[in-house]
Write a structure and sequence with these properties.
It is built from 9 helices and 19 strands. With about 375 residues, it is of the alpha+beta class. It has 2 domains: about 180 residues, no CATH class; about 190 residues, no CATH class. The strands form 3 sheets. It has a 9-stranded antiparallel beta sheet with strand order 4-3-2-1-6-7-8-9-5. The protein has an 8-stranded antiparallel beta sheet with strand order 13-12-11-16-17-18-19-15. Strands 10-14 form a two-stranded antiparallel ribbon. The longest helix is centred in the C-terminal third of the chain and has 15 residues. It is elongated. The N terminus is likely disordered.
Length: about 375
């Protein structure tokens, strides 16, 4: 997807979220032809869009997801957006479970299949609960062990409140860990659009990387100390590309976290006027960050689109020469219009500013580089 399409794609994605999780299960899950194996949760495939609550519990804890006006969210994470794809995969997998064989109905044998009740057995069972918006039960399953041996994926399950256990065909991989359900993507800002990045540490240690212009691919490290050399020519590119696909490990509500005064500040400025300021720090063995995003029209370069008149050579001009003169550079960044850039900045700021993000170590470290990290080690002279 090119950068100009970002605004359109973003609007489409937002509409998808507002409408909630709306999708069709694969055709073979809806056509219940005669002679087909019985489905464990008959009717669920046709009613997937009515599911409004999804809860998972196991020996590690529990996680609750709810569908609202803004789509699916994780309640244990202050209603942070859930991964739409993971929710979709889970619901379709549950609707696709086909009964292979009935197994035991003896509660004393549940534990052998990993289907024990919560008050008995070696460990709490794994449970999946689906409800509609009114709280009606659309399917509650106790999920047990996978079938050993070869063949298609199969596992042992039973419907909650029933003693009958079943061997079913399908793959229902669920976990209660909240980070398993979070939408991990924070932002995706292509490095082609980045003009410069300035990282300032407490104590005035500052790193600036910048492109010469929008036709450049490499980020040059500015203000290299006299007598020092860069580790390698492209050492600044890691910082310049830090927002290309930024993901989270965890998330916290910003209103319950105090941002330290000495947090590192990294400011990313695009050629089309979007400014992303990240404040980064370490706390509780976590790499944390908050983001503020704004649009600065004064920093936006004009988006030049060649007209038909510009493309035509003047009368008497040699066509071959005209093509040579008009030849574009080998590369030039695709930029957003001011309207698109402003909309992108507003959407990002509204979505990101209420949260403190726990970043992967590599992402946090990339955004908080010091000048010393950019330079070759100094040679020590022998005395």
């Amino acid at each position: 997807m090119n950068t100009r399409a970002f605004g359109i794609a973003g609007a489409a994605a937002l509409l998808f979220l507002v409408l909630g999780l709306v999708f069709r299960a694969p055709t073979d899950t809806i056509e219940r032809e005669a002679g087909q194996a019985e489905y464990l949760l008959p009717g669920l495939a046709e009613a997937l869009n009515d599911v409004a609550h999804l809860a998972v519990s196991d020996s590690s804890g529990s996680c609750t997801l709810k569908r609202g006006e803004q789509g699916w969210t994780v309640l244990e994470k202050n209603s942070y957006p859930a991964s739409m794809e993971r929710v979709r995969q889970t619901l379709i997998a549950a609707s696709n479970l086909k009964i292979i064989d009935p197994k035991t109905a003896d509660p004393d044998r549940f534990d052998q299949l990993g289907l024990n009740d919560s008050d008995s057995g070696s460990s709490p069972p794994t449970k999946l609960e689906l409800h509609d918006d009114a709280g009606g039960d659309m399917g509650t399953l106790v999920v047990g062990k996978r079938r050993s041996g070869g063949g298609d994926a199969a596992l042992y399950v039973r419907r909650a409140g029933e003693n009958q256990c079943w061997l079913v065909e399908g793959d229902l991989s669920i976990r209660s860990a909240t980070d398993h359900w979070l939408d991990r993507e924070i932002m995706k800002l292509k490095a082609d659009r980045i003009r410069s990045v300035e990282t300032v540490h407490d104590g005035d240690d500052k790193v600036v990387v910048a492109k010469a212009d929008k036709t450049a691919r490499r980020f040059d490290v500015q203000n290299v100390p006299s007598g020092r050399e860069l580790r390698y020519a492209s050492v600044g590119d890691g910082l310049g590309r830090a927002l290309e696909r930024l993901t989270l490990d965890d998330v916290l509500a910003a209103d319950v976290v105090e941002i330290p005064a000495d947090a590192t500040v990294s400011t990313f400025t695009t050629f089309d006027g979007v400014v992303v300021k990240a404040r980064l720090w370490d706390e509780d063995e976590e790499k944390r960050a908050v983001f503020d995003v704004r649009f600065d029209e004064g920093l936006a370069e004009p988006v030049h689109e060649e007209s038909d008149e510009e493309a035509e050579p003047e009368e008497g001009e040699n066509n071959e020469d005209a093509e040579t003169i008009a030849e574009p550079p080998a590369f030039t960044a695709e930029l957003l219009s001011p309207e698109e850039a402003r909309a992108e900045a507003e959407e990002l700021n509204e979505r990101l500013s209420p949260w403190v993000f726990v970043l992967p170590s590599y992402a946090h470290d990339r955004m908080s580089k010091r000048m010393q990290d950019m330079l070759k080690e100094e040679e020590t002279s022998e005395t």
